[in-house]
Amino acid sequence: MPIKITKTIIKDIRFPTGKNKNGSDAMMMGTAQGYKIALIMLLGLWSMNLDAQSITWYDPLKENNQVIHGQGWQDLGYARLPDEAQPLVREPVWNLSRNATGLLVRFTTNAKKIDASYIPLGRLQMPHMPATGVSGLDLYTKDGKGSWIWVRGNYAFGDTVSYSFVLNDNVQTSREFYLYLPLYNSVKDLRIAVEEGRDFQFIPVSPKEKPITVYGTSIAQGACASRPGMAWTSILSRKLDKPVVNLGFSGNGQLEESLIQYLSEIDSEVYILDCLPNLVREEFTEEEVKKRLIRSVKYLKEKRPSTPILLVEHAGYTDGKSNQERAQAYMRLNEWCKEAYRELLVEGLEEVYLLENEDIALTMDATVDGTHPSDLGMQQQADAVADLLREIL
Q1: DSSP-derived 3-state class of residue 9
Q2: Domain SGNH hydrolase-type esterase N-terminal spans what residues (predicted)?
Q3: Peptide bond into 337 cis (omega under 30)
Q4: Summary mean pLDDT of the chain
Q5: Which of 22, 143, 261, 309 has its CA at a distance of 20 to 30 angstroms from the CA of residue 197?
Q6: Strand partners for 192
Q7: What is the pLDDT of residue 144?
Q8: Residue partners of 174: CB distance under 8 A and separation at least 6
Q9: What superfamily would CATH give domain 212-392?
Q10: DSSP assignments along 254-313, one per residue
């Protein structure tokens, strides 16, 4: 619903007065300077109001249609799990589900300048991840041949996160845009603005289009992409031109029954289970890891027998050659995953697939800290997943 900002009319400006020697009213000292300051203020206010008058703001949550893409359920605001999930999931999972990772707003406009802002409800940045990834917005469109174009934005971070995107090209017609929301922050009062008189239309979610549903860890949530559009799930969505629901929970993707049950509620084109990086802990023994993998797949197959399931091995630690203990930890976990996968196949479960570590093939420089992918690593993981999904789908 558009919000138009109207012009403020200033009726008069009064100046302080004093008494001269003969007792008559007179302007106090600094009259000339006062007039000059007042004139500057008046012109500034008038200019600001002319600018404001030419801008129309749109609020996605005030639309009659569902226009927040990337959600498995409707009417979530900018969250990722429904309210009824709160008592059924662990508190860290619930808190992370308030982050807007994977969510985007799609719209069409012929505007050459697009502004967007929101109020962040969490920290703006992390030691290993910049504010542009944790709290930033990200805008994409397509050229006349259907190829993706990234639109650079000027930004400011504070109590409000603000972006201004300017397109300096020859396109005059309306085109579609994807505005990705932040990966590790929660969103309040998102607004999108274009010049008044420009076409603008939100694109509602299509109920007929099944999403790719991803359940994973901090890596799936987007750590440590430099901006939201570079999370591997976002790259995957653009590569395959398919919607993706991102249920990545940093440090908390543990193949829990409650989350698997919620996954089954989403009528998906494929389920991707990418939780092994959060199972590299002493309490997750070989028996426990295999049990969680097998239980998760069987439950989803029971509820959605025709939906393919893709298990993803641990992508590895890029410092493995200098830290044998870490290398052995993820290789051991991947071997358990292979054994669980073979057991599922022996039991006759169909359309269950495995993406192996060797196929992801993260290179030495593909992470920020040995664990979390940089943009390079995100691209490598997205490429590997997309290649296999093209065969599956």
Answers
A1: coil
A2: 55-199
A3: no
A4: 90
A5: 143
A6: 58, 116
A7: 85
A8: 108, 109, 110, 199, 201
A9: SGNH hydrolase (3.40.50.1110)
A10: ---HHHHHHHHTS--SEEEEE-GGG--STTS-HHHHHHHHHHHHHHHHHH-TTS-EEEE-
Rounded to 5 degrees, what are φ and ψ at 130? -75, 165
Question: Mind listing the pLDDT tens digit for each residue in 206-243?
Answer: 989 999 999 999 999 999 999 999 999 999 999 999 99
**How far apart are alpha carbons 317 and 331 in whole angstroms?**
10
Distance of CA 389 to the CA centre of its chain: 22
307-346 per-position pLDDT tens digit: 999 999 999 999 999 999 999 999 999 999 999 999 999 9
pLDDT at 64: 85
Residue-wise pLDDT for 52-90, tens only, equals: 458 999 999 999 889 999 999 999 999 999 999 999 999
Smallest CA-to-CA distance from 352 within 368, 361, 340 is with: 340
Q: Is the CB of residue 164 less than 8 Å from the CB of residue 115?
A: yes
Find the helix or strand (DSSP H, E) in which 225 lies.
Answer: none
DSSP code per residue over 106-167: EEEE--SEEEEEEEE-S-S-BTTB-HHHHT--EEEEE-TTS-EEEE-EEEE-SSSEEEEEE-
Q: How large is the angle between the packed helices 232-240 and 375-392, nearest 10 degrees? A: 40
Percent of the chain surpassing pLDDT 70? 87
CB count in 10 Å sphere of residue 328: 11
Residue 343 one-letter amino acid: E
Q: How far is CA 359 from CA 54, 273, 365, in A?
A: 52, 16, 17
CATH superfamily to which 57-202 belongs = Galactose-binding domain-like (2.60.120.260)
Digit-coded pLDDT (tens) for 347-356:
999 999 999 9
Show the CA angle centred on residue 262, arms to residues 261 and 267, nearest 5°: 105
pTM of the model: 0.87
